[in-house]
Automatic annotation (TrEMBL):
Keywords: Apoplast, Cell wall, Cell wall biogenesis/degradation, Disulfide bond, Glycosidase, Hydrolase, Secreted, Signal, Transferase. The active site is at E98, E102. This is Xyloglucan endotransglucosylase/hydrolase. Pfam families: Glyco_hydro_16, XET_C. Residues 3-212 form the GH16 domain. Glycans are attached at N106. It comes from Quillaja saponaria (Soap bark tree). Contains at least one intrachain disulfide bond essential for its enzymatic activity. InterPro entries: Beta-glucanase-like (IPR000757), Beta-glucanase/XTH (IPR044791), Beta_glucanase (IPR008264), ConA-like_dom_sf (IPR013320), XET_C (IPR010713), XTH (IPR016455).
Length: 293
C-alpha cells in the first residue's frame, strides 16, 4: 500500500497514529459498487461513465470515523445538464448520518453548481448551494470532507466552503457515533438537478464522464467486527493516543480559513437552507446558533 506523506503526517510524525489509513490507489481503498462496466481505468485515472443505460458508483472497502477524505475530480465536460456527480460519506440504516457533495451539471457554458448537505440521525434538508470560482470541468480539483468531534468541514482545493458545527451543548445532535463509508457516483437526475429540472439530459451527448484521481483517506478505520460504541472510543484521542485531527492547530478553522469561508459565502453562495424562510418558517435550531458564532 502506497502511503502518502501528506503535510499532516510529517507534522505529527511524533504522535501515535492508530488505525489511520492513507493511500493514493483506488484499489487499496475503494471498489465499484454498481455498473463496473461503466468504469474505465487509464493509468492513475479512473473514469465513471453515465449513458442512457446506466450511471456508475464506487464505495470504500472500509468504514471510518473522523479524519479527512479527499478525492480529485474533473467533472463532466461540455453539456452536463441533468447529470449529478456525488462524493459523500454515509453510515448505514434508517438513522444514518451523511455528508454530501453533489455536483450539479449544466448546459454548455453555464456554471456547474455544488450542493452540500448534512444528514444527522436520518434527517437531511440542510442544503447549501454555491457556484465555483473556477470551471471544474477543465482541470482536476480536490474535494475534501474533514471530520472531528467539533465539526464537519467541506473543502474545495483546501478552501473551506461549509462548516457544520457540533452544537451538542445546545441540545442539537451531532454525527459522531456512527462509522461512515466513502462513496462516489454519477447518475441522471434531470427531474431536479439543472435549472430546477427545466433542462433535461441530452442523451445524444452521452457518455457523460467524470474523471478521478488522488484518492486519500486519512481517517480512523473501523473494522466491522468492532461494536459501534467501541469504535467511537478507539477513534477518539485520549491520554496515550492522539489523532492528528484532534490537534489544536487543525481541530478548528484558523484565521485564514475563517476568512476564506466568509469570502466563499459572500461571493459564491447561491442558496442556504438557513435563510430559506418559506421552506422553514421556524429557523432550524442549528442555524440560530450558527449565526452567533
Ligand atoms: C446553471 O446555469 C444557470 C444559468 O447561468 C444558473 O442559474 C444555475 O445556477 C446553474 N446551475 C444549475 C445547477 O442549474
Ligand atoms: C441510447 O442512446 C443512443 C444514442 O442516442 C440510442 O441509439 C439508443 O437507442 C439509446 N438506448 C436506449 C436504451 O434508450
Amino acid at each position: 500500500m502506497a502511503v502518502s506523506m501528506s503535510g499532516s503526517f510529517v507534522l505529527f510524525v511524533g504522535l501515535v497514529l492508530v488505525g489511520v489509513v492513507s493511500s493514493a490507489n483506488f484499489d487499496d481503498l475503494f471498489q465499484p459498487s454498481w455498473a463496473s462496466d461503466h468504469f474505465v481505468y487509464e493509468g492513475d485515472l479512473l473514469k465513471l461513465k453515465l449513458d442512457n443505460y446506466s450511471g456508475a458508483g464506487f464505495s470504500s472497502k472500509n468504514r471510518y470515523m473522523f479524519g479527512k477524505v479527499t478525492i480529485q475530480i474533473k467533472l463532466v465536460e461540455g453539456d452536463s445538464a441533468g447529470t449529478v456527480t456525488a462524493f459523500y460519506m454515509s453510515s448505514d440504516g434508517p438513522n444514518h448520518n451523511e455528508f454530501d457533495f453533489e455536483f450539479l451539471g449544466n448546459t454548455t457554458g453555464e456554471p456547474y453548481s455544488i450542493q452540500t448537505n448534512v444528514y444527522v440521525n436520518g434527517a437531511g434538508n440542510r442544503e447549501q448551494r454555491l457556484n465555483l470560482w473556477f470551471d471544474p470541468t477543465t482541470e482536476f480539483h480536490s474535494y475534501s470532507i474533514f471530520w472531528n468531534q467539533r465539526h464537519v468541514v467541506f473543502l474545495v482545493d483546501e478552501t473551506p466552503i461549509r462548516v457544520h458545527n457540533n452544537l451538542e451543548n445546545k441540545g442539537i445532535p451531532f454525527p459522531k457515533d456512527q462509522a461512515m463509508g466513502v462513496y462516489s457516483s454519477i447518475w441522471n437526475a434531470d427531474d431536479w438537478a439543472t435549472q430546477g429540472g427545466r433542462v433535461k439530459t441530452d442523451w445524444t451527448h452521452a457518455p457523460f464522464v467524470a474523471t478521478y484521481k488522488g484518492f486519500e483517506i486519512n481517517a480512523c478505520e473501523c473494522p466491522v467486527s468492532v461494536a459501534a460504541m467501541d469504535n467511537t472510543k478507539r477513534c477518539s484521542s485520549s491520554g496515550e493516543k492522539k489523532y492528528w485531527w484532534d490537534e489544536p492547530i487543525v481541530s478548528e478553522l484558523n484565521l485564514h480559513q475563517s476568512h476564506q469561508l466568509l469570502w466563499v459565502r459572500a461571493n459564491h453562495l447561491v442558496y442556504d437552507y438557513c435563510s430559506d424562510n418559506s421552506r422553514f418558517p421556524v429557523t432550524p435550531a442549528e442555524c440560530v446558533h450558527q449565526r452567533h458564532q
